[in-house]
Specification:
The protein has about 110 residues and is α+β, with helices and mostly antiparallel strands. It has one domain. Helices cover about 15% and strands about 20% of the residues. The chain has a five-stranded mixed beta sheet with strand order 4-3-2-1-5, with no helix packed on it. The protein is globular, with a radius of gyration of 16 Å. It starts with 5 loop residues before the first strand and ends with a strand.
Length: about 110
């Protein structure tokens, strides 16, 4: 699953399913998850995922959360992004091999 607008400042790869995300902070500094638990009063967030993941595929723990199927395939979504958002240009400078520092593995 990809993410945007947040930083995963602590991610424990060896943790059991559903508890690996230890710290999640929005770009504006709002802490959503601390010590592996949702912070009291944290705002609700919208998550965009494939239907496969939304329905529990690959053991993603969405726990029956409601979702809206927009009717677009992953392929059509990628096409739309590349041609309409990026104007057909994918630049190595925009996608550095080392990433952007948003994820730290422990």
């Amino acid at each position: 699953m990809q993410h945007c607008g947040v930083e995963l400042t602590s991610w424990y790869l060896a943790a059991p399913t559903g508890v690996g995300q230890r710290e999640i902070t929005r770009k504006d500094g709002t802490v959503l998850v601390s010590g592996g638990a949702v912070v009291s009063g944290a705002p609700a967030v919208t998550i965009a995922v494939t239907t496969f993941l939304a329905t529990g595929g690959d053991q993603y723990p969405f726990r029956g959360a409601p979702f809206t199927n927009l009717g677009l395939s992953s392929q059509q979504t990628l096409f739309n992004y590349i041609f309409h958002t990026l104007k057909g240009l994918i630049s190595a400078a925009d996608y550095p091999e080392s990433g952007e520092g948003r994820i730290t593995k422990l």
